[in-house]
Amino acid sequence: MPYRNALHNQDSGVNFRNIILFGVLIATFLAFPSRPSVAASDINSDIENQVKSTIEETYRSRVPDSRTKVTVNPTNRTLSLTPCNHSLAIDLPFASGERITAKVSCSSPRPWSLFVTARVEQFIDVVTAARPIPRNSKIQAAALTLTEQNVTRLRGDYFTRLQDVAGQTARTPIDNGEVITPRSLEATLAVRRGDQVTLEALKGSLVIRTKGIAQEDGHLNQQIDVKNLRSGRELRGTVTGPGTVRMD
């Protein structure tokens, strides 16, 4: 009996020590708050960096000489995202303007997707008025200059070469410093009535040219009547450039 009691007491002591040790380990674990995993942080940073690179490449491919700045809004760090075992798929449904949303997705090992927003600024030199330009006036080269503009904030098209605007007519009054757009200009006539023009006709791989007289004004790609000087016949053709009409 004493032997058996001794064994029982020894077993109880061992169990008690194990319980104390386990309690110490639990207390130590609880003393230190849990931290977000480094892997989760890396995933979010990787997403933001890849979205930024994709947006920069997309915008620069359209305007190669631009200075592009992309600011990606931080992703939600509380999301539990499984690391992707292949390249992330990044889709830009509406890749234009100052505000842009990218869809980021991963198909394996565990599919997930999320949307990331960003702000884009794209700077390039565009044609602006160096002084006020009156309506219906012919625009002189001296009245133009190039200034750097954030084109993501501009509405509509713009010009990047002075020679594309010089010599055209202002359709509306243009203020000093204003960005000049196609809407600011009168549609320029490529051919005027009474002008001698070159008539072009295609026959196979050959281009046959002769002279004619425009019977009406014509803009680029507009159909007009012309008179063939050699035959005296009136024909209809399409204006393809200044002083040039292609026979249809």
TrEMBL record:
<dbReference type="GO" id="GO:0044780">
    <property type="term" value="P:bacterial-type flagellum assembly"/>
</dbReference>
<dbReference type="InterPro" id="IPR039246">
    <property type="entry name" value="Flagellar_FlgA"/>
</dbReference>
<dbReference type="InterPro" id="IPR041231">
    <property type="entry name" value="FlgA_N"/>
</dbReference>
<keyword id="KW-0966">Cell projection</keyword>
<comment type="function">
    <text>Involved in the assembly process of the P-ring formation. It may associate with FlgF on the rod constituting a structure essential for the P-ring assembly or may act as a modulator protein for the P-ring assembly.</text>
</comment>
<comment type="similarity">
    <text>Belongs to the FlgA family.</text>
</comment>
<protein>
    <recommendedName>
        <fullName>Flagella basal body P-ring formation protein FlgA</fullName>
    </recommendedName>
</protein>
<dbReference type="InterPro" id="IPR017585">
    <property type="entry name" value="SAF_FlgA"/>
</dbReference>
<feature type="domain" description="SAF">
    <location>
        <begin position="124"/>
        <end position="186"/>
    </location>
</feature>
<dbReference type="Pfam" id="PF17656">
    <property type="entry name" value="ChapFlgA_N"/>
</dbReference>
<dbReference type="InterPro" id="IPR013974">
    <property type="entry name" value="SAF"/>
</dbReference>
<keyword id="KW-0574">Periplasm</keyword>
<dbReference type="Pfam" id="PF13144">
    <property type="entry name" value="ChapFlgA"/>
</dbReference>
<keyword id="KW-0969">Cilium</keyword>
<keyword id="KW-0732">Signal</keyword>
<keyword id="KW-0282">Flagellum</keyword>
<dbReference type="GO" id="GO:0042597">
    <property type="term" value="C:periplasmic space"/>
</dbReference>
<keyword id="KW-1005">Bacterial flagellum biogenesis</keyword>
